[in-house]
Amino acid sequence: MKLFANPTSPFVRIVRMALIEKGLNEAVETVFVDAWADDPAHLDANPAGRVPALVTREGARLTEALLILRHLEDLRPEPVVFTGNAAALSCTGFAVGVFDAAVAVIIGRKSAPDFDAGMVGTKRYRTMREGLARLDAALPASGPFDLSAIAAVTALDYLIFRFPDQDWRGIAPRIAALRDAHADRPSVRETVPRS
């Protein structure tokens, strides 16, 4: 299998973390690409040019993080990462909303230097703050390191990485505690976003 990835993408990170958690990391060749460069092999895997994109052993192209995660559950059912539990899916949805808004700000800045202060940028910042607070309140106090925990850690780390001047840990103390408790976990440690 081949995973087209970027070391800063939160969507890539949740897939990479799941691969490590499931013990599938060694079965996947990870190719880091610049999603803006239109690399032909990457575009063959995903014509939209977004990451992550997974080419399976059978040659199928999977182009969205949650679809890739669903496929990984079929490949290796244990340990369960992509649970069907409604509470876990709800937390995952909040987290994905947070980092989706953050990515939208980063992309928006490419076309409009004052994006953050505009109507769309302001709404994305609200989504990041309120979504993170709601995720923090909804995250179970304990439980498995499943997709809800993976996505929560990813959301917090991505906000800290991209918007370091804000107190994200203060908005999400429970997520910060979860992140700190799992800081030495290989899936967390090996996938921290880097420029």
Automatic annotation (TrEMBL):
Residues 1-80 form the GST N-terminal domain. Gene3D superfamilies: 1.20.1050.10, Glutaredoxin. It holds the Pfam family GST_N_2. PANTHER family: GLUTATHIONE S-TRANSFERASE OMEGA (PTHR43968:SF6), PTHR43968. This is GST-like protein YibF.
